[in-house]
Amino acid sequence: MRSNSHTSSGSGKSAVGMTAATRSLESERVTLHSVNKRVRQKSKRRGTGRRAGQGAKLYKQGYRRGYDQGVAQGQSSFGLVFEGVSIIIPTYNQRDYVLKCIASIEKHTPAPYEIIVVDNASKDGTAQALLRIGGVVRVAALDVNRGFAGGVNYGLMMARGRHIVVLNNDTLVTPGWLDNMMTCLDSDPKIGVVGPVTNYIGGDQQIEVPYREVEDMWSFASRHNRPDAKKHRLTDRLVGFCWLFTRELWERVGYLDEGYAVGNFEDDDWIIRVKLAGYELAVAGDAFIHHFGSVSMKALGEQDYVVVNQDNEQFFSKKWGDPHALVAETNKLALREMLPAGLQSKKQMDSRQRISTQGSADLALSFRRSSEFYPEGSFISDAKGEVYTVVGGHRRKLNIPVPRGISPVQIAKPELLSIPSGEAVESTNEIQAWPLEAHQLRSSSMEGSGNLWPNGTIVAAADAPETCYQISGGKRRRFVTTYAFERWGVHSAHIVHVPAEQLRLIEEGWPIIAPPQLLNEDL
């Protein structure tokens, strides 16, 4: 149900919302790709000579001057966000489909936007065809296929819009699609991600359609897409063939997990993290787009598709266990913190019902960052190797060598920067080992308190050793799965086995999840 996608060097032409530094770098690749071809053609006609040599010299001088000016402008405008939409389309060997998709966007999307196509090392001439389009189309022509998650991540890294759309390459957008989805997103601040309805998809986003041929689809879509807020409703799941969300949400939730091969389940994974962050999902029932359906996945062949799907499903289960129970438990914890005790039993709204027009004035919004689900005292790093320790919800940069025995976990730069900055660590005396070794711990006499064990201790009930917790801030925080436990470098030598009754006396805190795998060092 998703297209393949991802990774390496980007190439594209200038577009709305693109920083000049990126424009100059990407324009260099695009221009060299096309100009060299023209130069070779002229050389055949005119041969080599003094005039040709002088022309080539002048061209190089002008090109260098323009490049330097672009770099200077880009440095001064780096990080600027434009008030429009970045539409990210990952693709692999589907040139005709992606060109049709782009044509539909250009025809039916009046809002300010940029199109970012991430070509996953296609061999069908996709990149070359895209580079000829120009305009608001930016192209990242990667030299390795990194799958759907990797392709989307590369596009997210390039995106400059205040809003972001992730779109399958085998779709056709229709009149009013984006305006209606945007209206749905803006209808309630609790809504984080919006999806449309379509003719072909899993779940409750699929609707019955009267047409069989694409030519007959357009008239149906025009009638269906008449703005109607009554068709907006909350849902429990949104398939990743088309998402709309804000840059702010992405900065809280982070990139897709690249541990999923090719495609499938990476969208479910990301949606779980969206819900853990406190957001809700919505379907804009008045926004219909056509979906040809899993074109890239079907190209694998039935046998390979089954293998990829099974492997990704197993990885999803290993990472999350029971994600629905996890989300429900996290929402209860959030409600406990947000509401007085007398209101904590307030009945929750049916997730399938229509969105309330009253908004959320009766409920204080409290969205969370992915890093709030990371363990206290852990060590994290970015792609450049800079190392931080997470203490009290802040990141503290290590200005000292990483202590022996510590293996920092890499996370993406945007996610790292979303963690509030604390004072730098200048001495080894300011940090403790991670994870704490069980034999190094000594219990205090403060029974019935969260301080029964030192902050950062990894514990498990004697009668349920497979479920581990970290003691943090006077609370017990459960590792959601063994995979999460291992992802943070914890193993059996770190576990202190304690009586179950003592563990139950400690208040429950945020669960601890595994960070996404990132295979692209540029993220």
UniProtKB/TrEMBL annotation:
UniProt cross-references to Gene3D superfamilies, sorted A to Z: Spore Coat Polysaccharide Biosynthesis Protein SpsA, Chain A
Pfam families the UniProt entry points to: Glycos_transf_2
Extent of Low complexity compositional bias: 1-14
Feature: compositional bias, Basic residues: 35-49
Region of interest (Disordered), ranges: 1-55
Residue ranges occupied by any Glycosyltransferase 2-like domain in the UniProt entry: 86-252
Signal sequence extent: none
Domain of life of the organism encoding this protein: Bacteria
Name recorded for this polypeptide: GT2 family glycosyltransferase
Organism: Paenibacillus amylolyticus
Species classification: Bacteria, Bacillati, Bacillota, Bacilli, Bacillales
